Amino acid sequence: MKKLNRAILIFGILLMVGAGSLTMLNTANSTEIIANPTNWLVLISLFFLIIAFMATFEALDAMKKLIARKDGKEIVASLEEEEEKEEKDWVDGLLHKLTDAVPVENEEEVATDHVYDGIMELDNNLPPWWKAGFYLSIVFAVIYLLRFHVFQSAPLSEEAFKIEMAEAEIAQAEYLKTAANLVDESSVTILTEDSRLAEGGKIFAKNCAVCHANDGGGGVGPNLTDNYWIHGADIKDVFATIKYGVPAKGMIAWKDQLNAGEMQEVASYILGLVGTTPANPKEPQGDLTKPSLEENAAPADSSATAPSDSIEDITAISAL
Fold it and tell me: Which domain-ending residue is among 33, 64, 99?
């Protein structure tokens, strides 16, 4: 059983060395190795193979003791003592190889003439593990110097930082393309980027101008350039009106034709029309409400899209 424990200990050490080696790879490669089920299958198979191999030796030892037991207890005791001695020798040998320490009973061999406060100074050798680490650091320094400063086959830290920042900006841009569609009437904010406002203008010209005119002055639908609003002048109100429509007044819900990002773009564009001068402005409709240009405006009231009883409102069909 002691041999089996020793094998498991060695396997654990090798496993930790392998895990440490993964940290030297880049994130993509290490993730691919860890995520590959074949690698895990091989690792688990190797683990059980070692256990089976050592268990076989344990069984052979047990058979040897069983046979020896027939010849007398003294032979059995001798085999057990031999096994314990072998185990002790293995542990002592391992510690000696790691530390190269002189046994206490032999300290006179490394004693010096220096004595401080009754403490004798010993001239022990440096531990082999320490010297191995020191020599490895020298090898690493040479490889590092050749790779980064002589052959320049890999970027230095500053250049690597710039590369990673450029990759992060690309990843951020890709994320924002999808994040734009995560907004709703409770979290939408006014856009200020010229590119997205321009996209909102294109959507308005294609879908809304037929009822509100190209300049937003109104036609079948209400005037979008004045401060009179039927369903609220907040960005969240406008977004909700576009999203759910006003079916009772003839305005369809655009949520099935436009994604959230596009509705945010056209809503921001519409609020940008306030204060402009259309060619043929329609008479005011609704309540006098100055549009809020604050990004964190209050959530829109879904009841704002409820139909009005006035004849003027019923005949005003919005094509937003």
Answer: 99
Q: Which of 234, 242, 263, 250 shows the shortest CA–CA distance to 308?
A: 250
Total-model pTM: 0.43
The one-letter amino acid code at 107 reads: E
Domain end residue (candidates: 42, 70, 99): 99
How far, in Å, CA of 101 to CA of 170, rounded?
Answer: 57
Sign of the CA dihedral with 211 first, then 213, 218, and 222 last: positive
Could you tell me the CATH number of the domain that includes residue 253?
1.10.760.10
> Tens place of pLDDT for every residue, the chain, 320 residues?
455 455 566 666 666 666 656 555 555 565 666 667 777 777 777 777 776 776 677 667 666 666 666 555 555 555 556 656 665 666 667 777 778 878 778 888 888 888 888 888 888 888 888 988 999 999 999 999 998 899 888 899 999 999 999 999 998 888 877 777 888 999 899 999 999 999 999 999 999 999 999 999 999 899 999 999 999 989 999 999 999 998 888 899 999 999 999 999 999 999 999 999 999 999 999 999 877 665 444 333 333 333 333 333 333 333 34
| Residue 191 exposed, middle or buried by CB count within 10 Å (0-12, 13-18, 19+) | buried
Tell me the residue range of the domain where 296 lies. 194-315
Give the chain's domain count: 2
Total number of residues shown for the chain: 320
Strands (E), 184-280: 228-229
